[in-house]
Amino acid sequence: MNIIGIISSPRKNGNTAALVREAMKGAAAEGVTTQEIFLTDYNIHFCTGCSACLSAGICPLQDDFEQLKQRLYKADGVILGSPTYAASPNAIMKNFIERMGMFERFTSAGFGGKYVVGMSTAGSMGAKKVANDLTELVKGSVIRRGYVSGTLGVSVKGGTVNDIPNALTQAHALGKRLAQDIRSKKSYAWQNLFGRMMNRMFIKPTFVNIAKTQKDGRLRAVYQTLQQQGVC
Fold it and tell me: Distance (Å, rounded) from C-alpha 200 to C-alpha 197?
């Protein structure tokens, strides 16, 4: 099993990084292989909205995003960690999520079937909201659902997360839970149940129909991916 921690903080030894690393220690204690991806180490351009990924399957921008995407695809679980800026995930994380793009919305190729944890730290308020926001792409998966093992938002109130032992304990426990969920294939049957019902009855059939009607054109790569998944 493989879990990756994706950290969007600009500070390699900041509060968010410390929280994610503690969660990865918890996962490692369960015998899981862990990898850290520090987004500021990579060259990731802004999405231009060209939608070329829908037909080609890859982004035409010449940067490091595709290699990161492939690492995400191979993971069994993901920890997303972002500091809280203006009551939202920071721009670095938003950009990464945007680059997953409509291809992810149409195919669930990256987060579908995966277990995810959202984590955030804030100087004052908003960290819990942001930690939850980080899991929205998973909860909104159309073709194949993902699973949220949990979220953790911590207000450091001008200090550091290392000054809050309970926060580190919770992070460690959440990492362990993530690993255990992957191993046991926990179903979270009640998670986002209404949204999943609406998706199954209306949204997913619509997406699949659109992919079929444009399989030789704008949505060629989407259709091919859905075929590989046994959806089309």
Answer: 5
